[in-house]
Amino acid sequence: MSARVFASLCAVVLAGCPQDVVVDDSAPRIVTFTASRTSVEPGERVTLSWQTENAVTVDLNDAALGATRSVVINGSESVDVQKNSLYVLTARNSNGALSRAIVAVSVNKSRSGPVLTAMPREIDVGQEVTLAWSALEGVTLSATPGGGIDVAGKNSVTVSPTTTTTYTLTDGERMTTTRVLVRPTVLRFEASSDAIDVTDAGASVSLSWDTANATRVRLLAPGRAVLVDSTAADGGFTDVLSPPVDGSRLLRYELLVDGDDAQQVTRVLSLPVRGSPVFTSVEAPQFARVGDDVELKWTTLGADTVSVLRAGLEVHRTRDAAAGTFRMTAPANDFALELVARSERAGVARANVEVQIVGAPSITLSTVPASVTRGTPYRLAWAGQYVRNVHIYDGAGSELYAGLDVNDSATAPLVFNAADPHTFHVVADNSLGEYANDTLTVTPANAFTFTPSLTGSIPSGRRVSLSWTGGETLYGFPHDEVVTRSAAFDDISVTGTRLQFANDADDEIAPIVTTFRAPFYGRIVGDVINVSTNGYLTFGPGNDVNYLDAPLPSTRLERLTLAPYWEDLRLEAGEVHWQVKTVGSEQVLIVQWSNAVFGAVTGNQFQLKLFSNGQVDFDYAVMNVSGGRVGIQGPRGDEGVVFPSNPVSGLGLTFCAPRQSPVTLPVRSRSPYGGFVRANGSFVTVSARFDVVHPYELQLSEVQLAPVVGREGQWLEFFNARSTAIDLSSWSLDFTDGGTAPLSGSVPPRDVRVFGATTDAALNDDAGVDVALSNLDLGTSSGSFSWSREGTVDEFVWSSRVNGFAQVNDPGPFRYAGDAPAAPLRAQRCLAGPTYGFQTPRQHGTPGTPSSCGFGYGWEHLAPGYFDVSSRGLKIIGATTTTTLLTVDLSRAPFSFFGVSRSAVRVSADGYLTFDLTAPNDLFDLNAPSPSSPNSVIAIFADDLGGRVPGSGVFMYRAAQNEDPWASAPHWIFQWHHWSHGARDDLNFQVKLFDDGVIEYHFATMDSGGTISRYGSGESANSWLENGAGDQALVINAQALTPGISAFTAYRFFPR
């Protein structure tokens, strides 16, 4: 993107750039921060107490664990201290200013050693660092370089190192270190002259510089040898130029300064050459439409005139040569322009630009070869017109290929091999903001086909049996059969490779690097393997302190995990080994925990085996402990296979064994459930999809319990919150007296279907009943009924009724202003207002018309459609842990929120949007909706968040028609990229705002790291939609692990 384009974009989307913040001149102050005891025995509880002034947020950091969490402004908290600990309290005001206080708690006879931390860990020359520690008395502190530091009677000191320094804290025979990185700095880089005269014989230029904290300094001139390469911080160089001096260019010098840890800064000095002109910038579009206004812009040095030539003919000349602009109307064909700058003294400079003429793009996707056979590799090809950039995605939303500046027709460098249908999406653009897309479903000849025992719409969690013909074996498929057997323990403690853990092998992760691969949950795993001391292995990022087990499946446990015994284990006297062996025709990866300790119970020895055909075995040699969690977990936090009992010595378990038809599994997602069959000597993918009905998608929206026309006037109405129909075949109503009534037909998308005692309008008072249930009888003052398929789905309970008034039921779930943080979520009920029928007075209800109790949105589960805009969007918030709230202009495409057009929104680094444009920073209540500021909140993942890694940020983007492969309509996207709550989280989520008021939440990778809290699962976050008054919110997640937030899920809020 050119500077010109970027500047105009910034002007459009940022309302006033810089950020709109409330300035508070009152600096935050920590009045007190104390611990009830500063020296304890292992496991004793300590109460931390604090009081602050002028603070709007307070964070408590456990430096020993690297865990940070938000706490109340003034209060206390009890913590269990297992090892020497250091607690840092940070108070911030609304302007981002901060104050810190430190409390150290030492543990008598602690095996963990002292704790030492530096705040911050990276500085520039002249900045200060606070060193703080927790240890027994009698510590010494030294700096390398620098020597000893007086710490008598202290637990913190302030230092200002001028070079990268390692600090060592010694407590008796134990010690710990921390390192402060001092970045290199260029203090001065100058030339003796601001230009070189071309007429000078033997012209020269003298350069000089001063730096700080540099390990190496180099002076370069592009196209020439390195001029200086020195370890001296300061220096100079005289460059004698060989005549004649080239007057067609700038003289450019680069000073490269290296520091510690491969840090490097670069400074550039450019000197024009007098007497001959040079173009310092030329801007022109690479593409244009026929009839567009094409603008050519330039700047020069040393030019007296500038001419523009087309096809050798001069079409423009200017004597205002320092900067100029030329405009023309784009013709029907590609064209080129030449710029010629002339100096009256000497010399000519030339620059050329080419502009390609494009129109609206078109594209189609196909396969090579055109006919695909099961098990035969194929590629994807596209053909179209005015195609400049191409993006190809798979059916799950993952980008497979990005081609930039491509041809109209080409083949992607990807090879696929499948046994069942696979869907692909392609998006093409012409580089001018116009897009075209196509969807291709590739169905191989003789495709593998599952036959499910349940068809149609299936309630989430139901078990389904899958069968197939042909006698083929299914591999790596998450069926729910767990085989119990005698252990086949293969001790590898001598032959295997020992994994190296730090920290006494307590709460640690270590990687396995191997070429071993195996099918698991429909994918090939093994490129990433991380093993936890806490008794499990994961095929993705691992959390080294994930020791608080929970019932499986759980969002608390990492995705794609094998857990032979997930528990708070220690290995101070134990070991973990791994080895790849050959067993029969298969390879097997064995991971073995030996002498694992839980509490005071030692000697536990168990192992997992993953076979190259996808089978998973757990074998238990010695188990002296009970408890723990045993099972496997898939790519989503709600799917897995569990062994419900305690493993005992001599037990063996087998999961995911290769199976011939049939297999069974519980279905909880509309995303595909994948596995593999063998074809032509290799694994090829197969998958099964189910029309899963999630909770709250099929809602009892209205019921007439007490009609004035008697039982024939009773009716109930189901509302379908999905954007696809729900088939009610094989569903039924179940009454409290044991009776049942079969349901039938389907409920249209975002619409209702009415069931009643009769369809006769004369008998039911024109209630518009679609389906008659002859045994429907709800004629009691209180009661209940449920609806089911293969088990109860949901239930409606009433305790009162009003004659002639239907009850409107909106299950939500909702949270209201004033609710306690742990209060259960609630539905909303009300009596219907509108009237219907022939009676006098008329009855109240809206049978056949969707209605609610006033909250203007409903919601549904959505297929994941995360459209990463980090490479194309505008970064509006950079890497920061400071609360930031920006006002963003939406006036070019206003958004309708609860029916009100909004032309601006505030974006928070803390994971939410608000249309309350006067709200001060970070006053969003994370416990319950609040009428106080801010309200009108779109809280996708509201928590105490920030960006802690390079490249992290909050991005915004306006997706054009057909640009987003998962949503063709234009929309705004706000994306939090590589964001975090704890120090090592990797949280990625985005909000899509559509012009018609639809809101979508999309979650990609949501990994928790470095803390026992599962922040990525929403343990301390809220995902909800708050109304304009701020007194009610429609909730997806409210600081919970169940249901919590799972990676690669999505939700849609729609106006009603």
TrEMBL record:
PROSITE patterns: PROKAR_LIPOPROTEIN (PS51257). This is LTD domain-containing protein. It comes from Archangium gephyra.
